[in-house]
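Exercise 7.
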Amino acid sequence: MIGTQLTYEAPDTLKGVLDLIGRQGYQVLTADQSLVSTMKKGAASPQALVSLRKVPGLATIGNESGELHIGTSTSYASLLKHEAIGQYPILAQALATIQDPHLRHNCTLGGALHYGGHAHAAVLAALMALDAKAVVLSREDDTRLPIQSFSQYGKRVPLPAGKLVTAVVVPIAQQTTGCYLEIEQLSGRQPAHGIAVTLRSSERGVEEARIILAGFTEQPVQLQPIETSLNGRPLNLSRIDEAVEMIDENTLPVTAGNGPKGYYYQLAKVLIRRSLTQLAG
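Solution. The predicted structure, written as tokens, is:
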């Protein structure tokens, strides 16, 4: 519940935004208003909101130097319709799992990276699998952070005060295959459990695997031990069996959902088997 009186600011430049969000109690209001949802849950209590709606250039999509640049005020619906998404099937598959029209037309990467939430899980998992990076600005500098740096062992890692994500950059994946799969459950419009996988392969087998589970934890979680077990080896049924059996409390720290952990481990095993079998051909 929001019970405090808030100051509202809407600068029309990035400099104006950065000057304000560096102040005590000021927080950015992303285009999808994820902060408002966070405040209603009592998880945030800012003194002032800094809107991005007047800042130009934050809702653009384009290719630059062989990379896809996505402005963080771009809606998921706009991204899914853009011609550039055809180069990234795994991202298109993840976006397509968001069935709720309100979420699809209002969710943005800005909300995903600044405030998180299960509605963004599939998209963040796909971006992690694609080795995407966030362009982060402050008054002092700008940098690129891997999307996986916003998640640590399945928990959200918040941006420091005064930082603003303006874009997400996705590299063109060479010799890489991938997919996003989900398991639908009787949960209304709640996000399902899913998996994002990319494999960079050569004649000798898997050179680099990225396996990300979504919906099991607060933020998508990368299964690095399983990735390591696949790297440098041919992908066959035996390797897939080994990967599936590695799922336990050490590789997957289940924190979301009300069911027994064993149930979620089984869901994860099904997703790993299905995705790797699909990519193995």
